Amino acid sequence: MISSRSIVVRTGIRLASPLALVVAGYLFFAGHNQPGGGFAAGLVLGAVVALRAVVGLVTPRRASWILALGGTIAGLVAVAPIVAGHTLLDQVVVETTLPLLGKVKAGSALVFDLGVTILVVGLIVAVLEALDVYDLRSRTSRSVVQSDGARVDPARVAAQPTDTESIGAPDDAGIERGGTR
User: Fold this and answer.
1) Residue 176: CB partners within 8 Å, gap ≥ 6?
2) What is the pTM of this model?
3) CA distance linking residue 26 with residue 126, whole number of Å
4) What is the pLDDT of residues 142-152, one digit of tens each?
5) Cβ–Cβ < 8 Å for 55, 3
6) What's the rounded Cα separation, in Å, for the pair 96 and 71?
7) Closest Cα partner for 121 from 21, 1, 31, 11?
């Protein structure tokens, strides 16, 4: 893969990641009044995770924990109004004045969007794990050198029979495998 060997691709993704995080933050906070929100921010963050995974940079793993966290946050925010005697997904808005920012409003929808963002990132991490992106990256970056100096793909070396699995030897059922060496 060119992405794991190219210093230009690797450096480009490393430099673009902070910019993408700023764009995701903007989409997250602007999403209540304009297009964007938790889902759009999650997609941008997921794209950053996917690109970083392909080139071998640090990425989050354990999708089940990320999905559980996002689902728990979104679920609690959705159900919490019922406990207070309101309807499902009812929003509470808090308004305050901050020294540099002035009047700031924040609602429970912001916390719900945070849960959605985490869920979307978790789904993308789950897809990357299901596609074995982490294993693929490690397989393409290593090669096995044989005694004659030739480089061989590690997957082909793993597929070759070992001494105990030699062709023509009886298997567990006592049936001999056909074939010649």
Assistant:
1) 168, 169, 170
2) 0.70
3) 25
4) 444 455 555 55
5) yes
6) 28
7) 21
